[in-house]
Structure prediction request, 880 residues.
Amino acid sequence: MSADRQQTAEWRVDLQSVVSISYIKIFYRTDNVPSPSVYVTRFAGFFLYVSNTTSKEDGHLCFHEIQTLIGTPVEDQRINCSVYGRYVIYYNERNNPNVNYPSYYSNFAFNELCELEVYGCPVLAYFGPNCNRLCPEKCREKQCDAVTGNCVKGCLPGYQGVHCNYGNLALGKQAWQQYPYSNTIWGADKAVDGLYTNRGAGGNQCTVSADRHQTAELRVDLGSVVSISYINIFYRTENSHSFYFNLFSGRFAGFLVYVSNTTTKGDGNLCFHEIQEENGRPSLDQRIDCSVHGRYVIYFNERRPGITYPSYYSSYAFSGLCELEVYGCLDAGFFGQNCEQLCPENCQEQRCHITTGECLGCVPGYKGLQCSQECDTQTYGLECSGSCGYCNNGETCDHVNGTCLKGCNEGYKGDKCETTCQPGTYGKNCVHVCSVTCGVTSRCDRFTGKCEGGCQPGWKGDKCDQKCNSREYGVNCSQVCGYCLDDDQCNHINGECSGGCSTGYKGQLCKTECDGGMYGINCTQSCGHCLNNEQCHHINGSCLHGCSPGYKGPGCITKCDRGMYGINCSQVCGYCLNYEQCHYINGTCLQGCSKGYKGSLCNSVCDGGMYGNNCNQSCGHCIKDIPCNHVSGLCFEGCSIGFKGLLCDKVCDSGMYGVNCNQVCGNCLNNEQCHHINGTCLQGCSKGYKGSLCNIACEGGKYGYNCNQSCGHCFNNTQCNHLNGACPEGCSVGYDGPLCTNVCRRSHWGVNCKETCKKDCVSQTCHHETGQCISYAQVQSCNTSKNDYTITITSVVVSILIVLMGSLLNYVIWRKMQQKGPVLDTPNDKDYYNEFRADDIGDKQKRQDMNTSPYAELSEFDHPNTYEEIHKYGKADEKM
Prediction:
């Protein structure tokens, strides 16, 4: 695409060398819209040149577009331009002041070529549709039109016509004569030098052969096979027709002219034989019409011995030719006046009659004078003399070479379908091979393929190319297959099931039912435990009459489970250890029994007084000797007096005894456990206690071990502390010390010995109670001890209240325990109790109750510390 607003537009293509151009195509811009487009105004008025230089002025103007109607030219142009050149130049202009451009022309010149194509022959001196024909030999500079072959620069001298193909074809060619005369000036070349104005021996323009020979021969080589029209012969006259006529006409008489493609006249065509009936008849100037093709023109004459020739014949043969001219077409493929017409395309060797154009013979496949007709149906080849072979479906063969374009009919092969199928092959083109399964191996009808001798075992059909199917096999597919896996076809020959047998069958042919205790695919599965060892069903393995003891299911291969055993798994297993399955046949528990059961079948509960694994554990001390639970050993009615725990196998401890160990031991010596049944302290009581249960504090002015120690002088004779003998309200008047056993020391008296004896007492010694001097009696006042009595009374009242509250609390606890059942002494006891109590009773609510503290209803107390609190009050009482 060229730039805008230019006065000229030029574009050229370099073809790299001078070529022979036939025509040029131009495709102008359209922007893909229907023609005419708006761009034709830019295309209008263009020029097209072919030049041997880059300048259009040096070249040939092939085309100038000039239109008179708006809308032309068309965007696609084909321009015929039969010229030679290297550069093709497109040119347009809008700058010529002498040109009045039409109104539809664009204002400026443009080059908008989408494509420019140049067609012709890339190599000079060739022409024709495929540029495969040489330009006529006599074209000047060997240049001809790429399409027609016309000589574009004229002809060489002596030739004429548009192809420069017509003229004296013998001129200047090589010539030979049989017996040349010794004088070289009379050689054979004189007959083709184009000179015959002096026809005498001395004129140096004629041939003269040697004397006294019986044959004379002169031959001209035209250089190639040419198309001859006629031949001119100018014989020797010695330039005097009347004087020498009889002499030389006698030598000339009886001559023969041949045209041959070889140097042997016998291989050629006899164009003329001179035979005269009157003396002197052969003219010395001869024109011989001879429309043939050939390379060699042969003049011949003879005077054989033993042959009687006319009287005017010379005695010997001579060749006295002054000139021999051959007129015709230099290129044998032309005919007509001046050889301007091409011979018909299908003429043999492109040769035709030089005058009529009739082919001297046709190329294979054609017939007729012009060889324009294809051979008739079922014929082909040279002169259509060949008969077609057995082409497919009877179609005619190729008219040229006889090949069957669509192949052969059944039974024949080869390009021409003339060869019968070899043994072992058949059908169209013999491409099919007879079946190896024919009765006679690989032998069949060459047309149909039908086997000779029928089929081998396992095959069927005319061609024996179909395997037996439909569960058949063998000779003529007459045998029935066995039970092959998945109903597959058995081997078509021998009936074997290559993929194995269907369920329940065995053997190579799969016709035998499974036996010997086997069933299933290929009889590889063992039967189950059928009753009385009977054979199971050969296909599905089911036991038709039921299972042996210990097995179940249709195949009797599943052992009894889920707690069952025996015939048809109808019997219930006992209580096997860890709930394991009992022996599937006899029901025995191989690992032993679950807790609480015994016997080989574990279906008997433990005897009274025993429980647990193998019933080897003894029950605890259940109340009223009621047997414990045979599984868990639990005493559901409670324990005998003095025992506790889920199993009632633990004696009371931790300071408890009695029923359910809910009674608190007394104060046994060294805090030892009291007797678990009756609560007696076997080693005696702790300080301050007495009685068989050591639950009575010392009294009557006693304290300490076994209450065998006497209290001191307690205030108002109150009981001292039963443990340590301390006086809770202090000492009586006149005593002090921890146990109020000490009399006031000297000089002191009164409550707690805080009073001092009067000074007027002798040695300040006075009575420890009254303060009276020892040396004389003196009345003491008692007013000072009133407060001490008050304190003592208050302490006694508080102690009594604490004891009452403790007793009340113990009573409440004992009542609750009696209602709840046995006391759970340890966490392990509680877990054990819960486990078996829950198993045997199955009461979730009771398990929750069992996990409830015996103090649960005493919400106003700190439950775990109730017992400790009671004893804390007791100890506080001791300190008071």
User: Anything to note?
Assistant: The first strand starts at residue 8 and ends at 28. Residues 777-792, 817-880 have pLDDT under 50 and may be disordered. Residues 786-820 form the longest helix (35 residues).
